[in-house]
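Quarterly update, task 2.4: pyridoxal-5'-phosphate-bound model.
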Amino acid sequence: MEYAFFEGSFVPIEQANINIKTNSLHYGTAVFEGIRAYWNEAHRQLYILFAREHYQRLLNNCKAMFMNLPYSSEDLVRITVELLRKNQVREDVYIRPIVYFKDLKLTPKLIDYTPEIAIYTYNFGRYLDTSEGIRVKVSSWRRNDDNSIPSRWKVAGAYVNSALAKTEALLSGYHEAIMLNQHGYVAEGSGENIFLVREGKVITPSYSEHILEGITRNAVKKLLKNELVVDMEERPISRSELYVAEEIFLTGTAAEITPVVEVDNRRVGSGKVGAITRELQELYFRAARGLLDRYMGWLTPVYER
Ligand SMILES: Cc1ncc(COP(=O)(O)O)c(C=O)c1O
């Protein structure tokens, strides 16, 4: 039987349903996370990657949205471990926590409502092609500005922006969209942060560029500093820099580390996955699966040993 955590208890997934009048369904005010857990067959263990960090971001977003939940991030990690045990997950899995106003009232506001949380597991598989890389298009849709709907928050309504960009890219024959911010600088993908390599240096837009504060982005920064020992720079990136980059890759919980081999019909570097991207992927996947001792702190084991 598959369970979800739904409004305070574990219930069979078929019973984890909301009313059509639910306020957050109408106004996009739900806040959510995407978390992956990786199965290690040799360890007979399922490792949740960055569980605390994801729940801390969720609670930060909830605070901004006036959603006061009776849980700490530690509580939510414990609930997630219990859910994965109940569902006896022994394979790679994606976890989707979502917080919404359950009230059946029709006013788009954030106060005087009751937030609830649901958590369920999902068999995502690979989100994008991490081995051969993908073709991307600079979108005609601009990234949400911090003063309209902050991109920093994983709030449901903000994903209309992502859905528009992703759809345009797919209908134009590309795999993913890269969005520019309102100032015309490179922001991020529809569900990923972006990194470029130029003259051996790795560059990524800073937090002030209207992007999500990606947890994978942070992990990549650590790997670049500690393992690859390459220089990193956070600064505004112009669209035209994408066309002369030696390597481009996207990062995200779903996208993991996805190489970009073509942007707006121009080959990135040689058109093959670059050396820095490959090395980062290798390290990231090994760390996520509990194969690198020095990064075990990134993981929460689900089963008792
Ligand atoms: C718009 C957007 N940017 C970036 C990311 C990457 O964030 P993270 O690495 O925390 O999953 C995501 C995915 O959550 C996203 O939706």
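Highlight for this quarter: Residues 34, 162, 188, 191-193, 212, 214-217, 251-253 surround pyridoxal-5'-phosphate (CB under 6 Å).
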